[in-house]
Amino acid sequence: MQFIDQAEIQVQAGDGGDGMVSFRREKYVPAGGPNGGNGGRGGSIVLKTNENLQTLLDFRYMRLFKADNGQKGGSNNCTGASGRDLIIEVPCGTVVYDAETDEVIGDLTKQGQTLKIAEGGRGGLGNHCFLSNRNRAPENAFPGQPGEARSLRLELKLLAEVGIIGLPNAGKSTLISALSAARPKIANYPFTTLVPNLGVVRKPTGDGTVFADIPGLIEGAHMGIGLGHDFLRHVERTRLLLHLVDVTADDPIADYQTIQGELDAYGRGLSDRLQILAINKLDAVDPESEEVNAIVSELEQLSGTTVFKISAVSHFGLETLMRQVWQTLDELKAQEEAEQLAIEESIEETAMSLEPRS
């Protein structure tokens, strides 16, 4: 399955049905009067999230979506049938932009969430609506209004709690394959991974947490160099970043600084995102050598955090690393719940202060 995370589509809501000009003509009913019905409303277009979808691949082959038109009004004051709404399923994490103004229309993150993106046209009025004392036999009706047409840009930002970042060939894919059932392509050369990989990692409690391997980050990624510009957006959704540094690289310290510089240049709060730092490929060197310890010491000074020693291949150090990941995620969740509670209490206090006193 191809991973497609951007798409442009055209949507056209249904037109409203025309109102009808009709008069009641029955035996023994003199001057029956107007009885032309209103037209039906045109169908709207709605986006709905489906957690079983992982990419925007379907929109590569179908880019024009049109809802049904409303039906014309009938005699005997019968309103025309409304057009059916067109429901388009998209993956969770889809951001919807107006392609012309670049305005964000909606951000769909939860299963079953819906967003109306094009409103169907209203049905026209039949001639019975124009009956008055001055006009006892109106012969005019209104046409239906056209449905809304829009050009949209869809962007998929993966929903993962932990994003694994690092330079190409740092061992990100090997790590996600060691922690989960994901089986990405792994080889001993850079840019093996060309699309983000998702893996569900089980906590000791049995709950699953989604990890994302973010590929293609190199120097200049925020400016569109390499693959990183296309995939940096997927880091925005993560709560926690797991930064891997290849200890066998020519200059691991410079590698770390390169990734930090790209996060900072990209902006949107990525440089402030909480990180866990680990040096990888300890199976290829002596973990307790002076050179490795010097790298760890310098990285700890630069990052201000503990640096973990791991080998994704041999699983060395993974248990200790994951304990820290789970602990950090629990702390972040508790912090978010406390902030949400504080907001709710503030809203409640404000509401109480605005209540009229007897």
Notable features of this structure?
358 residues, alpha/beta, Spo0b-associated Gtp-binding Protein, Chain: A, Rossmann fold, 2 domains, 6-stranded mixed beta sheet, 5-stranded mixed beta sheet, 23% helix, elongated
Distance between the termini: 66 Å
Give the tally of β-strands: 14
CATH-scheme architecture of the largest domain: 3-Layer(aba) Sandwich
Can you tell me the number of structural domains? 2
What is the CATH homology-level superfamily of the largest domain?
P-loop containing nucleotide triphosphate hydrolases
Helix tally? 6
Low-pLDDT parts are 189-193, 220-229
Proportion of residues in β-strands: 15-25%
CA-based gyration radius? 30 Å
* Overall average residue pLDDT: 83
> Would you tell me the structural class of the helices and strands?
alpha/beta
